[in-house]
Request: fold
Amino acid sequence: MKGAKQPGHVRRMPRGSWILAIAAVAALGAQGASAQSTSGSIFGQAPVGGTVTVKSNAGGSRHAEVKDSGRYRIDGLRLGMYTVTLQKDGKDVDTRSNVPLKVGGAVEIDFACPNDQCAKPEGSG
Reply:
């Protein structure tokens, strides 16, 4: 019999449909991957002229100079636990331990500023 289905017959998808299906799945996977960040930032206020160093419990470290605005920011840090240290004139002034950096997160760590003013006073410098 012509046109009759034979037992065990499997209908196949046209080749173009497979390509579109694979492309759609790949696009969805790329969106999901970009939605979840694998790094974070540590930022805050600190006395002008200081340096802030972040050290990962895994061993890596980075630092940033405190800007004239009294702000600092260190981006692109791997997730994990950090020790954040304020240094002034080459000496450790203040340290915050066990600072957790989680997925897509930014953690604010502020250090005490003289008279609660982290920025340089106008006319100084």
About this structure: Confidence is low (pLDDT under 50) at residues 28-34. DSSP finds one helix and seven strands in the chain.
